[in-house]
Amino acid sequence: MTLLDVFLWFLVACLVIALYFLQQWSRSPFAGLPGIHSLSRLVYEVLGKYGTVYDLLLSCHERFGPVFVFAKVRGGALLVVVDLDFAKKHYSQAHFIKSVRRKPSKFFERFVGMYNVAHSNGETWARQRKAANPAFQWQSLKKFQEKFVREAHRGLRYLECGKPDPAVEEVLKKTGFDAGRGRVVAMTRFSDQMVVDTLGACIYSLDMKQFEEEEARLALLGRRIMAELESPARAFLGQWVELLPLQSNRDIDADITELNELLRGVMNEHLSQAGEKNAEKLDLVDHLVGSLSETEVMRNLLLLFFAGQENTSNTFVFTIQYLAEHQDVQDKVRAEARALLGDSLSPTVEQLKDLKYLRMVLKEVLRLHPPVLFTQTRVAVKPFTVGGRTFPAGTPAAIPVLLYHMNPEWWDNPTEFRPERFEGKVTPLSWLPFGTGPRQCLGMNFLMMELRVFVATLALRYRFEPGPQQPSWQKKTYGRSMDFTTGPILGPRNVYINFIPLY
Predict the structure, then answer these.
(1) pTM for the whole thing?
(2) Which of 53, 146, 467, 478 is deepest in the core (most CB within 10 A)?
């Protein structure tokens, strides 16, 4: 066979492959729809043009309109819709059900606990949701109030007399930032320590002692695992990376094993005490242990660690950052807290409910920075029509939460930080940080109550001002400099806040 023959056969093979993919494309429910259909284009647009997924999504809405296609990192694509009527159907289990991964990454499954209350359907989902619901209702959360306050006081003690963070000292030296009477903290680490300690106390009945432990091992554990799982190599190569003899695989395996052993110990401790506690002292794990199998309990404990740390901590960091940048808003938060609490740093549940302006601040932060950009993918259980086009059952679709929160039809000057917009009624289904309907996020009330304690307590004792900015704050998002982590949960990075004591 000559070289020319080889070349001709190569061309034929390429043609056959191209025809195959063209045929598959013509059968796709998304054929002819505008959007980003391929992973290669997604990578190009994020890395080559827009820099962040935030800005890419906003651009997609401007270029393609309210209905478009968006490529998934691990292959395939999904339908993205910005429409209030569609949102009603999307959150209804009569029209859409959760898309469950058939072959999740081994590490991802061991870390997040797949097939838990967030990743299951039907009777399996209903049983797990029923078991977890009682612990997250507002009345049940009242017993957590003292623990929220205790962990907030730990944060205050750290700001007053905790050991200096060498990493922060290095940043101060490098930037020449003068903190004056204040103390500069790396906000993400500080927040993780408070949030993980609170998770331990309220959910697992454990004293994590992350402020007392110099390396804050558990507070950083989840961040390390997520950073590795969200690395570009794992995002684009998927499970193949896990087969390679890499040091990163050994490190992440050790971290996930440590977390699993910790939570398995929590579960076993609760199993040994089953039936011995009175109803007043039951915590979430007790509710799960009494209703679910051990495998299901573990899956949900892993989910709560992952989501409870990331979502709450990120929102806490963003809130303090916005208050530091908007001193007028911070003054209103402090004045409201002082009017209700006086000099007390231990708010009661009733007082927390009356912190209405702070509640508006938290809702505005969650509007600008929802915990996730998209809802979890849901699959249509029957044909549906949107944008004048009918799609078959089985079509994967997602709600782009960010685009609902940034839509100028529903929000005046949507990129502006303005908590007062929540004084009146807002357009139904235009604010969706926790979703809605029967699968609304379990932790919504927990997060809102916890952060009201944290922010009010800190505001009564300190003034927050921006700390040194890092060179990584180059990309302008929403017209301001920010630095984000990557992945489905976008958190702030390199946020330094100067806490200045008020007395």
Answers:
(1) 0.88
(2) 467
pLDDT above 90 coverage of the chain, percent: 42
Rounded to whole angstroms, the Cα distance separating 146 from 215 reads 26
| Amino acid of residue 58 | L
Q: What is the CA radius of gyration of the chain?
A: 24
As a whole number, mean pLDDT of residues 211-219 equals 74
**If we measure between CA atoms, which residue out of 319, 331, 297, 355 comes closest to residue 145?**
355
Q: Which of 52, 57, 102, 97 is nearest to 76 (CA)?
A: 102
Which range, of 61-70, 158-167, 218-227, 234-243, averages the lowest pLDDT? 234-243
**Overall size of the chain counted in residues:** 503
**How many other CB atoms are there within 10 angstroms of residue 340's CB atom?**
19
Segment 128-131 long-range contacts (CB within 8 Å, at least 24 positions apart):
128/292, 128/296, 128/300, 129/438, 129/439, 129/442, 130/291, 131/287, 131/288, 131/290, 131/291, 131/292
Q: What residues contact residue 483 under an 8 Å CB cut-off, 6+ apart?
A: 470, 472, 473, 475, 492, 493, 494, 495
Q: Which long-range contacts (CB under 8 A, 24 or more apart) does 223-228 make?
A: 223/188, 223/192, 223/309, 224/251, 224/252, 224/255, 225/107, 225/111, 225/252, 225/255, 225/256, 225/259, 226/306, 226/310, 226/485, 226/487, 226/489, 227/485, 228/252
Tokens encoding 216: 């804050």
| Over residues 147-170, mean pLDDT | 91
The 3-state DSSP class for residue 391 equals strand
Tokens of 448: 């809102």
Mutual angle of helices 444-461 and 122-136, in 10-degree steps = 30
Copy the structure tokens of residue 1.
């066979």
Yes or no: say if 488 and 377 are a contact pair by the CB < 8 Å rule: no
Distance CA 91, CA 399 (A): 9
- Which of 337, 400, 298, 325 has the alpha carbon at shortest distance from 35? 400
Q: CA 432, CA 439: separation in Å to the nearest integer?
A: 12
> Whose CA is closest to 406, among 415, 398, 397?
415
Higher pLDDT pick, 11 / 133: 133
Q: Is the pLDDT of residue 490 over 70?
A: no
Q: What is the largest CA-CA distance in the chain?
A: 91
Calculate the average pLDDT of the chain. Answer: 84
Q: How far is CA 378 from CA 14, 78, 497, in A?
A: 35, 9, 39
Q: Which pLDDT belongs to residue 19?
A: 44
Residue 148 has, within 13 A of its CA and on its CB side, a CA count of 26
pLDDT at 13: 61
Please count the other Cβ atoms lying within 10 Å of the Cβ belonging to residue 123: 8
